[in-house]
Please model this.
Amino acid sequence: MKRYLLLLTFLLSNLLTSYSQDIEGMFKQGEQKKMAGDYHTAIGFYTKVLNSQPDHLNALLQRAFCHSIEKNYQGAIDDYTKVIAAHPEHIWAYISRGSANNKLNKFAVALPDFDKALSLNPENEEAQEALNNRGWAKQGLNDHDGACKDWNESKKKGNEEAKIILKNTHCK
Model:
């Protein structure tokens, strides 16, 4: 009996190791396809990973990125929402979800994500991106003064993109 238990333990251990390697292999294939610009196929590999391991953070983030590139903004929003549910301090997920909502002209929905990203770490380099994108959301809501304020603050923090935005939007 002891011999059978050892054999069963050995077989299960090998099976789990193989399973883990298969998941990481699929993830790596997704990465290769993404790097080659084949975002549609990459999404398929990331989806296979997530079907086997729904909490695979990198697969969620990469699939969301690919959805955005493919202009499937709702798919990106869905994935970033899952990231945020599992990792509520993930600044980039808030910024990216807000940006996807901006792309869908859902500016009022996007604003709280940028606010949250800024509240998590206002001095983080990513926060400058949140300021720029929050400015676009405010601009979309016809709050030109609020948009200019965000872009000016981003510029003060050294963001080069904010300088270009300010010049092109005629902010004071």
